[in-house]
Model the fold of this input.
Amino acid sequence: MGKDKEKRKQAAVRKELASVEKQEDKLRRAAGRETVRPWGKLEEKIPQKVKEKLEKAFCKAFSIVFEKGTAIIERSYSRDAIQEDYQVRDFAVQVRGRRKELRNVDSGAHGAGLRNMAVTTAEGIGLGMLGIGLPDIILFIGLLLKGIYETALQYGYAYDTEEERMLILKMMEAALAKGEEWETKNKAVDAWLSGGAMGKVQKQETEEQTERTARMLAMDMLVLKFIQGIPVAGVLGGAGNPIYYRKVMKYVRLKYKKRYLQSLQCH
Done:
């Protein structure tokens, strides 16, 4: 009876992994079509000094929130409650092992993402109407990291070791990559997921990756944050927040789901 249950679980895991691969293929094709940013022409019109100011502000804000903001972000959700929820859902997977139980684990992460999406939409558009661009960067990054941290916990993973922080940074960077660069960065993420590349990480390595990830976000969001600094018209810039939130979180959730499913194959 035990062997039959294990076979059923492994069959369900394989089907879910096949579904993940199809979704990854969609992301791959989408990244291939986005070889240039749609507002590249607008970016050329931003004065160089303004561009440099925005990029520095974005990178500094990202670094501060990522390095020192975890304790503050954690006040916005119950880590213990999410971990307990995961344990219940994972127990159901181990006991029954059907696709229904596997999808229940996924639904918990998706539900938290929808709530954060609503908040980042309201925050971005609200500040955009007031012409507030730079302070919004800190709020947006905080909400984005909140979504990632909650997702990690929903799949049974921590987010506060150097190794896990490095993985998070690599996933964020890959999510925004385009063309062939997406392929390269996605393979690097998969190598970490499999455990083959997740060795001991030094703090300096995390700091260097933090800068690369921040610059990737800054390059993509530069024009939107510039527009957001203009009253009323800033609504357009603020409206970009949920677009980027959705893009990053879609990739991150998919990778954590893949990681969780792969861990079930090892048992």
In short: The chain has twelve helices and no strands. The CA atoms of residues 66 and 145 lie 8 Å apart.
